Amino acid sequence: MIIDLPSTTTSQVNSKLVELRERGGAVALGRVLTLVIAADDDDKLEEAIEAANEASREHPSRVIVVAKGSKTAAPRIDGQIRVGGDAGASEVIVLRLYGPLANQGQSAVVPLLLPDAPIVTWWPGEGPKAPAEDPLGQLAQRRITDSAAEKNPVKALTTRAKSYVEGDTDLAWTRLTNWRAQLVSALDLPPYEKVVGATVTGEADSPSTELLAGWLAEYLNAPVKRVKSSSAQGIISVTLDRESGPVELHRPDGRVGTLTQPGQPTRRISLARRNNQDCLIEELRRLDPDEVYEASLHGLNKIGGPVAKPAKAAPKKKVAAK
To answer: Can you give the pTM of this predicted structure?
Structure first.
């Protein structure tokens, strides 16, 4: 059920929610969190709402969509409430803000927050350079951006690395879960040797490829090389060098990867790109700081740099026999 409330106020939206709850159409007591979606009022907005609806089947929530409309229009709020089959396991409140109100998302959201429920803010499109300093980000315990949706993905990633605050995360990082799991499991098989170097190949503007290289650079204590390619999208391959031979995970088609390593049979692995829905579901499972993501951001500065080796002791001078 979709209820439109044109030229409304947050007070009127709240009153309508109470009315629906009393009629049994929506129950807020079972909501585990409030998900705030900050986006522009464009053709991609419905994709974000649909992803949130699907995620709510695992994480029942109140979804508040703050959609920025034209800033030159007359100031008004067009509200919409979605419940039942149009809202998954959540209740969706869409607020389209126009004119001077377009920048007042925080004021519009606060009256609609669930009491005592954690808040997650998600920017499915272009997000702020410093999410924790954004008014909607200040409300949240968890802040989700997506560098891949930016005009300059890699630049956006490095900018947010400088402004990182506990609770920040990025869907470009979440898309790496399967890659990281396969690489870790490969190193758990014999021969158990130290990785002495790594090469990560991927699309030039792929933030996920950058983060994967940063993760390896941070934890392997070995030089990591980042190779840019235009032959495919996203991550193409990872090579981990060891004395007995390399471990290679190659995914040229964006769907199926091939894992090869010495002493083990070649394996074909499903490595299809993850959609926003799956990534959002994973991110909503935790509200604590992601320390591995933070470490991978630090690792971005180590990509391409050699690992410092301990200085060798100066040879002792031979003393001539007397």
So the answer is: 0.90
